[in-house]
Amino acid sequence: MGFGELWRRLAYMINARKEAERLDDEVRLHMELRARRLREEGVSPEDAPYAARREFGNRTRIEETSHELWSWTWLEQLFRDLRYAGRTLRKSPSFSVIAVLSLAVALGSTTSIFSFVRAIVIMHLPVTGADRLVILRQHNEQFHMENCCFSDPFFQRLKKEAVGFEDALAVIPLQVSLTDREQTENVQAEIVSGNYFAMLGVRAAEGRLLDAADGSSEGGGYVCVISNRLWQERFGGSADVIGRRILLNNEPVQIVGVTAPGFTGAGLHEPHDIQVPASITGKLFGNYPVWLGFNQILARLKPGVTPAQAVARLNVVGLQIEKALGQNTSPKDVFFARDGSQGLDSRKSEFGKPVLLLLGLVGTVLLVACANLAALLLVRSVERTSEAGVRLALGGSRATLMRHFLTESMVLAIAGGVASWGFGQVLTAFLLKLLGPQAEGLSQFVRPNPAVFAFSAALTLVAGILFGLLPAWRAAQCDPLLAIRGLVNAVPGGRSLASRVLIAGQIALSLVLLFGAGLFVRTLQNLRSIDVGFKPENVATLRIDLRNTSYAANGTPQFYENLLRSVRELPETRAASLTTISVLTGSMASTLLQEVPAYTGSDHMSYYSVVSNGYFRTLGIPLIAGRDFNSDDRAAPKTEGVAIVNEHFARQYLSGDAIGKAFTMSGGRKLRVVGVVGTARYRWLKEEPQSVMYLPVTQWTFPKSLNLQVRTSGDAAATLERLRALIRRIDPIVPVDEMSTMEMQIDQALARERLLAFLSTLMGGIAVTLAAIGLYGVLSFAVARRTREIGIRMALGAGRETILGQFLAESGWIVGSGLAVGVPLALAAGSLAASLLYGLKSQDILTAVLATVVLCAVAFSAALIPAWRAARLDPMGALRWE
Amino acid sequence: MSENMRDEIPPGTLDMLILKTLAKGTDKHGFEIAEAIRESSEDVLHVEEGSLYPALQRMLIKGLIHGEWGKTDENRRARYYRLTPAGRKQLQLEMERYQRVAQAIARILQPA
């Protein structure tokens, strides 16, 4: 329909009555002229008008046809149907409210989780050929870990080799302080190779982007490119930003360009708003030995080349390059190609499976909600048999009848869909909060967007058809003769077998959801009850960074010693200390042991933390033997130093009895063990016990950036603000971040598990509630329909217990058959979650039993009310019931 | 009566006949169109006059013709129809189509 036609139709609709009159005028004129012409041809004046009318045909029909041509009959019909549906739904408000609410929750959750699935699993980095991007990694045999990064010479040489890459780029992500007009904030930035923008196919919104010349010109490359996002948020989108001088880590740098909207660096889930060329690495990052590698390499495969092929080639070429560069690599140091379609720091590996699983959960709830509504609508369609019968008897077509019932379910679906949009937003916001800092990069993708909206709209329509079709079809099948006589059996299968099957299906699916919820809740419990080896309660932690301050040159030890003294003077401080590594955050430092007397094993790796005295008291790690560090541990670097090791270290390397023994660590420094402490979790909550050694901060080059950790007598979170104020009093320009408490840090480490436990419990609860409502509805209806039968049986001497038992048994059958399907289904579905569980198996029997008991209890209470009502019926009243 | 001598117009060609009628000469109202078709076909074609009006409405919707109210010679109010550029194009299309079909039919019916 063209625009002109639309406009003419609208104009006609507005003037419909006038237009009809005009047509009438035309027709009348035509008749008169025809009659006159007929008279001229010799027809008698009396006959002429009739003859004219005969020749014209059926005038009313013609006028109607003309009107229909203009109007959208279907639209008018739709309005009529909607009005009718609205009237019917208003007549049973409790049903309508349940329907709309359950749909809102089910559709809203599905939409919300879908938006996460889209952001975490589906989306690609918005660059050229993202699906062919791979991230280069290398196994490190010595440290049992995956090397993320490569040196500059390695990257330069690799680019010249043919390993099946179309192109490859190097990135060093780092945080910089951005100062503009006296305001300083921390921003995520990337040091990029010269081909970065060309390879990714990113365009400039303003100015120019970086190229090879920026990367190579020594000293001339004090330039940067900012993202559209930063441009809008920090610089108000003003055009004069090009050429502006800003300070990055106190170095003057000129902004030369703004990237096109949507691009925020080489990591989809970890936005980086500034790109600088490699030529100013030294200024921003500090100089480092050329063999040290900080470059992450992102490569694009040539079309048709598989990652495996490229890796096979790389395992030859890459190792050759490393040998040529004099690196000490073994043939076991094989290369990997990780999926790079989402760039660096993708959350897909950690959260991809959980969100897909959650999508399965919420999808199941949606199915349960649809089954529930279908069952309730089926019951209603039986109740409305007489209405349907009368309409059929009066000549209404079955198609029209079906259309009316379907319109009703679509009205419910759309109302639910509209409400679900609100619920989905609330849930999305809540989930983002639950995920904490990990979700910062995701939030921009889960905001309302057209793709998710389209998904939600389509889902709403499908749901409406899903739960509306069967009841509508059944209503239209009724026999008008029987229906008018008020016989509910007029509908085929009048005992509503279908609705019972639907309820049993709901019970089965609810059991699956409850079982899943049980698995995840118990996983979370198991993780929470892990003995971390220290006492996480009431420990505040924050990070202080002196790298870009005047302390960097000298005065670092004095600053920290002052700080510790002041903190220890605070009334709530029980203990305070400094450490390079904040535990359970994933950060770590590791080293190789060179000479360990009497040790014959092949493994030489140990984690380490550089700490101040009081560290073990602060965290509550028990000192098992020997002593803590003290102020005498001040030997200069290079000479023999002291170390405290954990029990695992002592057992692994020093045959248990560690005190007084010495060993040499990588770099050649000799260390003597002065203390042994309990083995506490170091890097991850879920790790196996690891060898960790603790080195005194006083015997090493004092680290510029340290974590201050304080055990308090009260709420640690409240102390954080006082600590920040204290630091500001000592020196207002010292940057403080990563303010947290040890318990919050553990919560962060459990973000994924908390997400799963929370959502699966919510969904399980909703599903069970809906199943209970459905069971209640179907059973109430059965009682109402069989009132007369109950009356007769009571009159014939059946006791109330018999009636009660009969209805309970009936619901027992429904629940029982649901469980018979649900239990095996749940156990089978559990295996999907196996890799996400901790401390229990995916076929955990206890959880299955618990889920079954909970479900049975809820179902029993739902069934009891209508069964009780049946048993309390007054037999005389029931007999007269119509 | 002469009615027996007249043929029903082939289905689907009424629009074309109306367009053709409007294409030559001045704007016409409904009755004039009916009369014009009858005269041009030398009384052979019979338009069922009632069906003329829905056809006119249909073409108004599609924007093939344009109607304007005016006065007849006898000072009666009447809607005068005129071809729009779109209508002229449509007429061209329909005539070509019709001629193709007519020729094809003629070829089949030719005595061998």
Describe it:
The complex is a heterodimer of chains A (882) and B (112). With 882 residues, chain A is an alpha+beta fold. In chain A, the strands form three sheets. Chain A has a six-stranded mixed barrel. A six-stranded mixed barrel of chain A has the order 14-15-20-17-19-18. With 112 residues, chain B is an alpha+beta fold. Chain B has a single domain (2-109), classed as Arc Repressor Mutant, subunit A. Chain B has helices spanning 14-23, 30-40, 49-62, 85-109, and strands at 7-8, 45-46, 65-71, 77-83. Chain B has a two-stranded parallel ribbon with strand order 1-2. Chain B has a two-stranded antiparallel sheet with strand order 3-4. In chain B, strand 3 and strand 4 (77-83) form a beta hairpin. The longest helix of chain B is centred in the C-terminal third of the chain and has 25 residues, at 85-109. Classes of the chains: A alpha+beta (882), B alpha+beta (112).
Shape of chain B: globular
Strand runs of chain A, count:
22
Counting H and I runs of at least 4 residues, what is the number of helices of chain B?
4
What is the CATH superfamily classification of chain B? Answer: Winged helix-like DNA-binding domain superfamily/Winged helix DNA-binding domain
Question: What is the topology, as strand order, of the major beta sheet of chain A?
Answer: 3-4-9-6-8-7
CATH architecture of chain B: Orthogonal Bundle
The total strand number of chain B stands at 4
Output the structural class of chain B.
Answer: alpha+beta
What structural class do helix, strand and pairing data of chain A support?
alpha+beta
Instruction: Tell me the Rg of chain B in angstroms.
Output: 15 Å
Strand content of chain B: 15-25%
